[in-house]
Specification:
The protein is of the alpha/beta class. The chain is 34% helix and 24% strand. The chain has two domains: 3-371, ANL, N-terminal domain (Rossmann fold, 3-Layer(aba) Sandwich); 377-477, GMP Synthetase, Chain A, domain 3. Bound molecules: zinc ion (ZN). Residues 295, 297, 302, 357, 359, 361 line the site of zinc ion.
Length: 486
């Protein structure tokens, strides 16, 4: 029996919690988290005692913290038993689940490095390989291959959160989701999205081709009302299609951007062209597709705190930083069976925002969009950090630009940024415009003032000559013997 069949069987037997979210609920995701917390509360004496209430009606932030700490202890107990990697690690450091009583206690548990996972993937597995419903490798942005396993329960849980997230972004019966992920080889996100749509009774269509005409005709033929995909790809379709077709005539209600950073200029161009809001979703292959979902306020992403515990640490001291302060995002899975991860370093720079949210959500902490990965940073001039997302707003401010790449080289003792820009409308005017906006970026401006960075150069390439590739490197460092690490 294939993964999909066994999953279907399981779903038939078990009602997904996403289906328990009442119709017309204003905050489906938070409601879904409350349902999860209440169910755990009912079943576990330990949690009832920690919360100190007889019934859990309206979940407060304090209650939810206790739920998360309880789940954290449970996940620790599980990996201690089932995962050779964590069993050894906890033994070596003499830490036990009972050490975790408060949020500060979390700091006593060692961090998990992505490189450890890449080098010891099999030791992380906490379920036998016969129990895994699916196994896949992920290279992420750093190139290290990690092996991840999902049990049937893991898959159901991923579908459950995606289904809740689809409700959160406003999908209703009668809507149809168009899934457009080109060239994704390692693992197929459409499986989970289509599964979630099926369970909720929504329509769905999938097109994985790079061909934008094919994408357009699939959207039109299947009567899609929602689109989900990589922002760089949807942006490409927007710019190349927008010239020929009035995209607003398709009647798309929402575009969901996922798996890549979404810059504000990209968002505005897409919102303008399609006539709908673009909602950002953040995920990590290690933890699932929808770890955090933006609400209507578009001010921070609501996090899936029922399945994941988010911490932000100072990467120098490894200590917690308060909500609202930027640092490195560290995530713990709270219910995973296949590859549970405890205090996993994401190497993403982000901040957690405290509740409430203007949308009315009461207890859920939001994620301020990751601003850049630590391992994708480069330094120019006197150590000014640059990272891929930094240039998006300056370059994509002009709709004639389809895509771009930055090359860093040496111009004598100065650093030189060369922007290779994909467009069908090259002109000196456009060149000047791009250079001017890039020079206004603080990091570049300071480098210019110090005279350690040369004035950037723009080179045009025609549309289509830059092969569209998922996770293509946006910044390429051509400087020799240059220390790119922190
Ligand atoms: Zn909100």
């Amino acid at each position: 029996m294939g993964a999909w069949d066994s999953m279907k069987m399981f779903i038939i037997r078990r009602r997904l919690l996403a289906n328990m979210i009442p119709e017309g609920c204003e905050h489906p995701l938070e409601e879904w988290m409350s349902i999860k917390a209440r169910m755990t509360f009912k079943k576990n004496k330990e949690l009832r005692e920690r919360i100190g209430k007889r019934v859990l009606d309206e979940v407060t932030r304090g209650d939810f913290n206790e739920y998360q700490l309880f789940r954290f202890r449970e996940q620790m107990r599980y990996v201690q038993k089932e995962s050779p990697y964590y069993r050894n690690k906890f033994k070596e450091l003499d830490v036990t689940p009972d050490d975790i009583r408060t949020w500060d206690d979390l700091e006593r548990i060692p961090l998990t490095e992505p490189l450890d996972l890449a080098e010891n993937s099999m030791y992380f597995f906490a379920a036998s390989r016969t129990k895994m419903a699916t196994e896949f490798t992920t290279t992420g942005t750093t190139g290290h291959r990690k092996f991840i396993g999902y049990t049937v329960n893991d898959l159901v849980s991923k579908i459950d959160i995606v289904a809740s997230a689809l409700k959160e972004v406003g999908m209703e019966p009668g809507d149809s989701l168009h899934v457009m992920f080109p060239l994704v080889s390692a693992w197929d996100p459409s499986l989970i999205m289509v599964g979630a749509c099926k369970i909720l009774g929504y329509g769905s269509s999938v097109c994985s081709e790079n061909d934008i005409d094919k994408q357009y005709s699939t959207i039109k033929e299947s009567g899609s009302t929602y689109i989900i995909g990589l922002p760089s790809f949807i942006y490409r379709v927007t710019v190349l299609m927008g010239d020929r077709i009035d995209l607003r005539s398709l009647g798309i209600k929402r575009i969901i951007s996922t798996s890549e950073p979404l810059s504000e200029s990209m968002r505005h161009t897409m919102e303008d062209a399609w006539g709908c809001k673009v909602i950002d979703v953040w995920g990590m292959t290690e933890f699932g597709l929808a770890c955090a979902v933006e609400c209507e306020e578009q001010n921070g992403l609501h996090t899936d705190e029922a399945n994941l515990l988010f911490e932000v640490i100072d990467p120098e001291t490894m200590r917690h930083v308060p909500d609202g302060t930027e640092g490195e995002l560290v995530i713990t899975s709270l219910n995973a069976e296949g590859t549970p991860l405890i205090r996993y370093r994401t190497h993403d720079i982000a901040a957690m925002l405290p509740p409430p949210c203007d949308c009315g959500a009461r207890f859920n902490r939001r994620l301020r969009k990751p601003s850049g990965r630590m391992d994708l940073q480069f330094k120019i001039g006197m150590g000014h950090k640059i990272y891929p997302l930094l240039f998006d707003d300056a370059v994509f401010a002009d709709k004639r630009i389809v895509d771009y790449q930055v090359k860093i080289s040496k111009d004598g003792f100065r650093d030189l940024l060369t922007f290779e820009v994909e467009t069908d409308s090259p002109s000196d005017e456009l060149k000047g415009k791009i250079i001017d906006s890039v020079c206004r970026i603080m990091e570049v401006e300071q480098g210019l003032e110090e005279d350690l960075v040369s004035r950037p150069v723009v080179e045009f390439v025609p549309t289509g000559s830059m092969e569209y590739a998922v996770k293509a490197k946006k910044i390429i460092d051509l400087r020799e013997n240059y220390d790119k690490k922190e």
